[in-house]
Every structure is written in C-alpha cells, then in structure tokens.
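protein under study:
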Amino acid sequence: MSDQAIAAHYQSGLEGCGPTRTPTLTRTPTATLTRTLTATATQTPTPTLTRTMVPTPTAAPGILDPGQVTAWPATSGQVPVTGSAGGAPPNAQIAITNQRTGDTVVVIANADGSFSMAIVAQIDDRLTFSINNGAPTVVAVLPPDPSLVAPAIDRSVATTAFDATTFLYTGPLAIQSGVAPGTIVAAQAAVIRGAVIDRNGAPLTGVQVSVLNHPEYGVTYSRLDGAFDLAVNGGAALVLEYSKAGTLAAQRSIEPAQQAFSFAPAVALIAPDLQVTAVQLTTDAPPQVAAGSMVSDAAGTRQAVALVPAGTTAALVFANGSTSAATSLNVRLTEYTVGVTGPQAMPAALPPSSAYTYAFELSADEAFATGAARVQLSQPLPVYIDNFLGFPVGMDVPVGSYDRTQAAWLPADNGRVLRVISVSGGVAQLDVTGDGIADDDATLASFGITLSERQQVALRFGAGQSFWRVALTYFSRWDCNWPGGAPLDAGPPNVPLPSGVDERTHLDDADSAGDLVVQNQALRQRVALTGMPFTLTYESDRQLDRTTLNSLAIPLSGASVPASLTGIDLVIHVAGREFRQSFPPAPNQSTTFTWDGRDAYGRLVQGRQPVSVDVQFVYPRVYQAPAIDRQAFAQISGVPLSGVITPRGGIISARRFDGLLGGWDAKEEGLGGWSLDVQRSYDPVSGAMSGGDGTQQTREQVDAVISTVAGGPINVGEGLAHEGDAATSVRLSDPRGITVAADGTVYFLDASLNRVFRISPDGRMWTVAGGGPVAGDIDPTTGQAPLALRVDLGSVNGLNNPEGLALGPDHALYLTGEFRVRRIDLITSVVTRVAGSNDRTQVCGRNESGTQCGDGGPATLARLRGPSGIAVTADGTIYLADSSRVRVIGADGIIRTIAGGGGNGSDGIPAAQSTFFNPDMDVVAAADGTLYVASGFQQVRRIAPDGKVYTVAGTGNQGDSGDGLSALQAQFIAPRGLALTPDGRLVIVDSNANKVRVLSTDGIITAVAGGGSTLGDLGPAPAAQLNFPLRAAVAPDGSVYISDDSNRRIRKVRSPLPGFAGLGDFVIASRDGREFY
C-alpha cells in the first residue's frame, strides 16, 4: 500500500452519491474453473410497446409501488412505462398523467399486477399514477436506480469493473444512453460516480452529464437522489459537462483510473440571476447600468454592477467563428460563490494556486437563445463589485475567465481595489493607489477610468465605499481570486499506513501440522478424496464472514497536530462506494473501518478490491498578495497578505493510502467453502492467484521483471524503413523522451535518428514524426503548417536533438528541442510551434532575466535557453524545464517563469527566488498542482501549489546510496528523468548511477531497476543492467517504461503476474517454478 501527499481546495457541502439499495440476490454456486473475458457489449434494442385501451373495471382504489415501476428511456418523445409483477393490484385500472403536458393514458394491469404502456414525455417529467381513481403516486422520467436493475455478479470468478458495470450502458434500460458499440474497452473500463445538487444543497434531477469532445460515451442523467454513474475508458484526463435547462452549465476535470470506480466532486447547478437589465448597444446609446442582485451570506453583502459606457456595441460570436451584431441584450450578472454550496457551484474547479473568493457570470439571454459561444464588446465594460472582504485599496485584483471550449481558465488584465473618496460636481473622486487621497485625472486614466465612468459612479455610489473594479471585454464566467496557500505550520497528516490492508501479501507460514496459517491467523483443513489424487481444502479466511480482510485500522493524527488545524476528514472509496467521516483537530486519533463486501449497487463482490483512504487535514486558507504581473490570475507570489482579511473556504493537506481490501470467498466455487487443491483462481486486477490448496500468490510477493519492448539488431537508418515491424527487431540509436497513452501505446523520440516513434499495444513500431525536409513553421510546398512526416527534427534549423516528450489532453504530443517546443496533433498530424524562436541565434542568455527572454508575452515570441523536460496538465498548461528555470505556458499561450533565476537553494522559499541548474533537468506535474523538478545539485525538488520550494530527495552530495532510507538521506549522481505512478509515487532516473529509483509517498526511496552487470531481460529488474537511462514514463497499469539510452533500448518494468488480460489466455508460474497454470 502507498500513500500520497496532496493538496486540494476545501469544498464544504454534499459530496456523496446518495444511498444505495441492496436487492435480494439468489445465485447458484458453480465449480467452473475457467473463464473467458469478453470486451463486446451487446446493445439490446428497446422493444416496441403497444398501448391498448380497455374499459374501466369496477374495483376499490389501490396503491402503486413506485419501486416496481420504470419510466425509461425517453426516446423519440415516447417513454415506455413498465410495472413489474406486484407493482399494482391485479386487473387494476391505472391512469397515468404527464404533469407537464396534462396528457393522460389509461391501462389495465395484468393478473399479476404487471403492466406496460407508452406516453409522450421527456427527461425529468413527472408522471402521476392513479389506481382505480385512488390517491396518486408520482414517478419521474429518469434513469432507474442502478441498484434496482444491476444483474447479479458472477462470484465464481474475480469481480472486475468491466464485468460489473456493462449493464449501465447496454440493454433496454441502459442508464447511460448513446454509447457507441465497442467504445468501452475491457482493460480500460472505468465508472465515474458523482452527484448534482441545487443552490440549497438538495438533489437536482434530470441533469445531463456527458464528456467534452467524447460523444462516443453518450450521456446519462442525474437520478432522484441527484446521483449519476458514467462509464468511460480510464487512464486519461476527461472533462465532465453538466447541463440542464434553466441553469448555468458546469464542467469538472477528472482522470478516472482503469478497472476502478472514480468519484467526481458534487456539483451545484444554479439558475441565472432573476434580475435582468435591457441594455441598448448602439453607437448612439447613452451610458447605462446593469446590476445583479444584492447577495448576502456569512462572507458579507455584495453586488456586481456593470457601468456600460456610451456607444458600446456588441456582437454574438458563434462556435464556427461567425458573428451577428446585437443592438440590444438582456443582461444578467449571476454570482456563483454564494453560501455553503458556492464552491460546488463554480463553473469549473479552480487552478490549485487560486484561492476561492468571488466568481460571477456576465450573460445575455440572447446568447443562450441562439447558442452563441460568447458576446464580444467593442470597448471594456467596467464592473464594480463591493469590497466585501476588505482587501487593501490600491491592490491589484487578479481576474480570469473560464473558457468551456478549452476547458481552461484564461488570465485577463488585473482589476483594482479602489475607494470613493468624495463626490464633487457630479464626479466621483477615486483613490486607486491606496494612499487615502483622491488620484488625479491622469492617474485614473492610466487605469482606463474615464470622466463618464466617474460620473456614473457618482450617481450610483457614495463616499467611503470601496470596490473591486474590473474591466471586461466579453461576456463569460469571470473569477476574481487572489492567490492563497496554507498557514505556515500546515502540513500533511503525520500518520503511518492503515493496518489490515493487503493482509495476505506475505508468504504462507503454516504451523508444523499445517492446520494454522500463523501470519494470517487462519485455520486450514485438508481432506483427501478417496480414490482420487486430489484433496479438499478449507481455509477460514476464504469464507464470507472473514471480516479481518475487510477491515482497516486507520491512524488519523500523530502525537501532535499543527495549531492552525481546524478539522480532520476521512474519505474512503471501495467498490464504487464512498464513506466520509469528520473528526476534531486533536492528536492521537484513530478509527476502524469495516466494509461489508458489497459494491455501489448492493452486490457482493469476489476477490480483492482497490481501496483508497484519504486522511485530510483541513486548514484555513491564507491569502497572498497578487504576483507582480499585468495578468496575475492563478499566479503565486508566496507573500502572505498582512492585515485581517477573512478567507473564504479552506485548504486541505492530505495523505492518501492506496491498497486492496477483501479476499476470496471459496463458497462461490460450489463446494460449500471447500476447494480442490489443483484449482486456481486468478484476479487480473489485483494480481492475486488463489490456490485450491490454500496458498496464495500476489504481485506484492515477487520482484518486478524487466524486458525490452523496443531496440534490436536492425538499424533503422534514414527514411521510413521497417514501418510496422516488431519494435524489438528495430535498432535504436539515442532514445530519450518517452510517454504512454491510456490504451498502452508508447511514444518515444530518438535524438540521433531525429524521429518520434510509436509502439502499438501489439508491439509493432511506427514513425510518427521526423525525416522530412521542413525545418520551419510552413511547408513551402503547401503554404501551410507541415505534416509530421514532412518535419525535419534533426538539423540546426529543425528541432535539433529532441529531448523531452509529453502527451497532452488534446491528443497531441509536445516535444522539446534545442531552442523551441513543437506540438504534433495525433489526429491530423499537423505540426506547430508552441514556444521558442525559429532563429537559433535567439537563445535566452544565462544571465538574462525571464522578462528579457519573453516572460509575459506569447510563448511563440519568447526565447528559450535549452528546454528539456516537459509536462502537460489536464487543462493544457505546459511546464518546461528550460535550463536553470521552470517556465509555464498557460492556456492563453503566454509564457512565464515560475521557478529558478534566483540565488537561493534553501527550502520553504518562493520558487521564483530559488536556484536550479541542470541543462538536462526534467519536470513532472501532479494533479494537485505540485511540480517535481530534477533540479541539478544531485537533488529532486518539489514546488508546492502555494509556490514554495522544498527538497524531496537527495542530500546535495554526489553518490549512490540510501536505498531503503528516507529519500532526504539518499545520494544521487545525476537525477535526470522523473515520472509519477497512478498512486502518487515518484520515479527518479539517475542516469550516471544507471538506476531507476522510486520515492514512495512515505518518503522512503528504493531502487527498482538497474545496478546489475548483465542486460537481464525477463529477470528481476533490480538485477538488470541499465546503461545511461535518461527518461521514464508510467502506464496506467503501473508499468514503468525507461529510455535506456546507451543500451539503445526501451525497457519495461512490470509485475511478472499479468494484469487485466481482456481476451485471450495467459500462463502463470507457481512460486517454485515447477508448475504452470
């Protein structure tokens, strides 16, 4: 089991997915010992239902059981309504009325109380059922509760997420509709669970949930409890879209794990502000005012007021780029950040560096009605927001907007905190510098404040009032947030691993009689079968009532806790279920958790199941001063704000433990809890083989093995020879940057061959880019951006010595070279430059500042010094290890330096003041906003979301020692490559030591590959020879791929026990190697 230190925004309010109902399941045990896995999802067509009108019988009024009635799916305006046996009294007359339309249909129940009919309806309609003119019962046109329709689990084999959840998107009552056949791949299957609420925290029904840019996943809808389940392929970042008529849409990013359930945080959808203002938008229109409603909550009272300048015009901009002039608009200003559900109501999750403060939507009814993407204004629109939190006058207000198409926050020009000093002659005298004195006209004009605006302020506001003034050029979802972090004494929980997890990961240790398995505290009995060479085995820890395997003893706090701690939250996820509990901020606390062995739909599962335990320390957030930048949104300064400013929400510093819970229930093998000694059952997800003789073999018991996946005796040479050959038959030259896609495809680049290659999941190799004549941005033969196979990656005018490689959420590869960064669209093969200059002489000098090298401007105009490592996050943000600096390119294409360039190597200081030096350094980004940097000086450093830098590995002295100890005691020779595993461990490639090491989340470092004297393929990875490894990448299944440079190979480190195999057979050796299964 491992733990992960993470930081996230604290969001109060509903996060669970509602209760589940447990159906009664009847199963017949089976002794089948083989299993065939299938990835084919069969779509069952919806039957054609015929409605028959019959006379009304004479009967007493009855009661309908709504739990026996289904009104789903809603297709083509018709909704089939079915009642199962016992749903209504026998032969009863049932009148069904659509409350929205008033239409009524009458049907007569069958003798067993079942019935079926169809009625015109749509999603979220309410149908009223009246039996024999009795009291009405209401049923919603919504997906059924999955726990009521989920089929029984086959417990003769290990339960997998794919097998357990195909019912969600197949069959006549599919909860998720429109899933293209074959979309969900067995090995990648995942299910996202979440919930939708309204402004008051009540469940919100009928909300459509889909995946941005992935129509193949179809849609689902929130149910009566507000919950939803959405099946997808895991292993890559996805953006969920939430929409319902009459509400403002929302998005949330999530990276679901493969073969597992993942949980999306609760989302609140809110209605647009009821206050609407008709605004004329013509060149002769006078100044106008549009205001949102006055809002009050525990944070204070505020209102957003837009002062529309005279002569402002507007255009509706559509997704295809076309525009339409709008001469008038009905304008609304709707605040998201209201009350306890404010965090859940945000249009999207905030960047980790941005502290939850205030967000609103500037919208026009006409844009919603026409489907316009946005409204563009002819001049800036000043919006005044009450300074309800008391930020100092004269301070910048960081401002950003959320773009739903890019699914990203985009920085905008800063606003300003100002105060109305007085009103004189109908003109407001304003202080924008914070000295308490009204500023002159020239100063105000430098902030874009005109005389006309000051006159409007004088009419609307009074002396002494303070506001945040922001100037907006288009309608969007706007956010005014200061940066923030945790208090100085904050830290993650200082607790050890929970006990009770992975109890059977050790070797069996039976007593001399073989009747007691000591370490498992289990009783084992064996009985020989007369006349047969087999025995039956009974083991007590393979029975359903073995609660030890389903229990965790969880430490929550150590001997002391930080003084600023406000609470401790515990969140446990297992088998699609979420368990939450809160505890006081006290030391020496622990708790026990026992799982009942059932999944999200109330069914008993078979085999070990992934479990995650999050122990969360909750702290008040501390605001920081804005960064010194014209567009400071989401940038960390590291400078706490002095004075008393009440923060909104909190911040979580957590430790996550991932492991396995549960065990094998032998009763489902059909022999009353006994097993044949020759029988073997294998769980491909958790990697456990249970023997009928009572033994167990797990992934944790054996060393990882190493193999070669690319590189061999044949020289590729120039051109495109050997396309589609086995990757192990192709000789490489200088493999460097490497990355792995969710489907297992491996991409890597060869700096000497100057090409990017792809290894398909079946082991064949193809050229992705390189080998062409085009060194610049334009292919002279087409006049357009070049295609990947036309690009020259090798010459001094090309990329020249490509180094780093990353896969973005936009299905594109990003690669670094000597002085620029390029993007390869994997769908169109078009190559574009995203950073750096085409002029090789325009290189950033070692002693030049970030500003001198283009910071604050377009990345394509910036000068780079030597970009090597690269990371791309789920929102498209790009991080570059550029020689002695770490630079970031936002979704708006602007580049900035966030670390390095200073002269301080200490811990706990702002990253911008720190020093890094390593021309080959690497960078990797965690989901919580943490960056890890192979910084040189034989160390690996961490840049926290609050902008502070800390050492996580290495003493700073050169050497090769410390395995099994704290990483802070370890020595490196030249750490170059970094990668993160799905469970949060950090992979570190020490090139000169010829080793790959892993830093676990409890701070212990261990060598996992390298150090041997022979190549060692198919043997233990720690005994294999690596020869100047440079980079590493981690697949969704946890396998580690290494660019073994001087061995001219791509190597793979994995467990010898196979993972989820999908279709096909596989072989597993016994622990002693004498048998194969």
Notes: The domain at 706-1054 is CATH 2.120.10.30 (Neuraminidase). DSSP finds six helices and 73 strands in the chain.
